[in-house]
Design goal:
Blueprint lengths: L7 H4 L4 H24 L6 H23 L7 H17 L8 H19 L1
Helix pairs in contact: 2-3, 2-4, 3-4, 4-5
Length: 120
């Protein structure tokens, strides 16, 4: 039977690169949320909703990527997927917000384009 579980040697390898990529993506998304909060009529909870989504989403993706990837950094396709996930967490902050449909549409359109880039 073929064993697809990561070996101990791969598990013990340095995962600092993957951690750094996740932290930088999360920081960029939070910075975008703060910028949107300043530029648009968003509630005070918007940034906190985004931070919560980033922390939960980041913890889940980081746990899976360090467990199942055999490299110390993410490849190009995985970085696009990580960026797309970061933008989706930004979209989660728009839940319950009023009069900002165009901004949510623009971010969702960017996510859709990145999905095409990732699939190509």
């Amino acid at each position: 039977m073929l064993d697809t579980a990561p070996t101990n040697a791969r598990r013990c390898g340095s995962r600092f690169g993957i951690l750094l990529e996740h932290v930088l993506t999360g920081a960029l998304v939070v910075a975008l949320a703060i910028g949107l909060r300043v530029a648009l009529p968003l509630s005070e909870l918007f940034t906190w909703k985004v931070i919560t989504a980033v922390l939960v989403g980041g913890a889940v993706t980081l746990s899976y990527s360090t467990r199942y990837l055999s490299t110390s950094t993410l490849g190009a396709a995985n970085l696009v997927t990580l960026a797309r996930g970061g933008l989706v967490t930004l979209l989660a902050g728009f839940i319950g917000e009023m009069n900002v449909g165009w901004a949510a549409f623009m971010i969702a359109s960017t996510v859709l384009v990145l999905d095409g880039v990732d699939g190509w």
